[in-house]
Amino acid sequence: SGRWARAEAIVNDFEEKCATPIGKLRQVADAMMVEMHAGLASEGGSKLKMLISYVDSLPKGDEKGLFYALDLGGTNFRVIRVQLGGKERGVINQEAEEVSIPPHLMVGSSFVCAALELFDFIASEVARFVTSESEEYQLPAGRQRELGFTFSFPVRQTSLASGTLIKWTKGFSIEETVNTYYPIRSHLFIEVTVGEDVVSELTKAIERQGLDLRVAALVNDTVGTLAGGRYYDNDVVAAVILGTGTNAAYVERAHAIPKWHGLLPKSGEMVINMEWGNFRSSHLPLTEYDLSLDTESLNPGEQIFEKLISGMYLGEILRRVLLSLAEEASFFGDTVPPKLMVPFILRTPHMSSMHLDTSSDLRVVASKLKDILGISNTSFKTRKMIVKLCDIIAKRGARLSAAGIFGILKKQGRDVLATEKQRTVVALDGGLFEHYTTFRKILESTLAEMLGKEAASSVIIKHANDGSGIGAALIAAAHSQYL
Ligand code: ADP
Ligand code: MG
User: Where is the Hexokinase C-terminal domain (predicted)?
Assistant: First the structure.
């Protein structure tokens, strides 16, 4: 019928615009590399912030002692304690407690949090965690507890344990002393005063709790993941997070960072937090759906790469295409299902379970449509079309992620095999990578395709489960005041 033909035309057009042939991926990877160079050359030189982490020595695996980490992610945070036993014994003990950020701390919109209240709440939870620990965790007399703080949003650091929030939202200027909103992973916003030092704010909150604890390191979660990966595997040289948002960090040669004016670190290396979610390039395959998603987002014009590949957005892109099918081709009958008009109602986990539906009648697709969108009585043909849309969106995201990783490897000169012994490990973490099997497989096969057989044999993608949490504790250990 005419409706079906129209639907097919829309889907085919979308598929064409989402296409990521290998040549395009190479252009994306090269553009990523160009931006990396520009971001390293000067502050503000690129969409890629290429933030200096001040982490110039990564854990070696021989660290010893009791360390803490605080991981502030999306809507919850975790307090972590690790007991490190040195080279032989490794991680002897690890405990974590997850706490959700209570809604009463959210002000304005439900996305906004006031920094002072948030830090006080976090500090009180840390105090509770520390005071309730058992005898075995007692530190030697006179020794201060040390903590690594994982903070999942862009901070301009001035040392390992200090940093101010980077002005993010357009329309606010640095001179303004008014509060500005900074996105944590671009969906949860924290209300801070421009120029406020994150570590000193947290330290003050910890002192208000009467706790003797030093914030030894301020660590982006990608940097934490890199450190966590390196602790277990000496060949980890980069880390990528694919969760609600996305970001990457990697090890750079210190002398290849023109904007670094400090002393060259002994190791000759520096971990760079790319903030790659903000990458954009004319080579990115953007469709009208991506453009309207961006325009209507909380941070228009920002985080374009993230909006193509991360878990926050994949389901929303699908919803937008389905809505257009409903409107333009009566895809779900004569009326547009009202729930389909609700932004972000269709989450990426829903999308992945539809995509991974292996039942012969696609009954998972049917049940998701019914439960989430209130759409029943879909034909098999319709469901199949929806799986195809999932495939198009996930494939584009996964292939672009692979191109990004290839760009990093190319920047490091690890896209080709230098010696037979060369081994390159990229630590991957985040709910999207962990749970969306199809996405993960496409990412891995695309990276192998880009590397070619020889180089691919030396590159390993490793799932760094919860690297970011323990990673900050490991960085605190590697930079302990008692070393
Ligand atoms: P965060 O990025 O907020 O720190 P995670 O790394 O745990 O947290 O990632 C959570 C995100 O992963 C979710 O927002 C969602 O987008 C994605 N995700 C979780 N489970 C699945 C799933 N089964 N399929 C696809 N995506 C998933
Ligand atoms: Mg996280």
Answer: 238-477
